[in-house]
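In this section we walk through a basic example: taking a raw amino acid sequence and producing a predicted 3D structure, encoded as discrete structure tokens. The instruction is simple. Fold the sequence below.
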Amino acid sequence: MGFVSKYVALEGGDGSGKSTVAEALRAHLVEKGESVVVVREPGGTPLGEVVRGLLLDSEHLDDWAEVFLFAAQRAELAREVVSPALSAGSWVISDRSYYSSIAYQGRARGLGESRIREINEIGLAGVQPDHVFVLDVDPAAALARQDDPDRIGSEGVEFQASVRDAYLELGESDDKVIVLDASADVSTLVGQIMEHVG
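The resulting token sequence is shown next.
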């Protein structure tokens, strides 16, 4: 198995359980003797954590400023953390990836999915997940799981439904994207993921 095939991204709407599944997948791989690096977007580098605060805690942010802030922290994470980890033979599990921007900014904000993909792919310079697993959940149920939603998580059910539609369509049009039923228990989801990547 080549290095790139060890790069797994978890996607889905706010409250879909990505962080929980990422931790369970990490534990499963470590138990098998694998080296694993877990990253999150936005975040994962000093720059990324500062940008995370701007993106998630600001009261208001221009839509295109949001796009480029996400893309900037993502490019930094790819170069500083993800690429070195893959080169060292580690697995990388990412809580979100540029597919989030395709769904949230491209579709839900109406900025154009192909434009958002192009902007992000320039910055990533080929450092992209080989497998993208979407944890699909009803938006209303997902929002109910959030104790303290951030700026984007507070957008409401209609916005989150648009995000979900984008992910489901990506699951049909993009070979990397696999949609999983997030209502399954965590061990089942980890098993399903490993069937694809192992």
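Looking at the output, two observations stand out. The first helix runs from residue 18 to 31. Strands lie at 7-11, 36-40, 91-95, 131-136, 177-181. In the next section we compare this with other chains.
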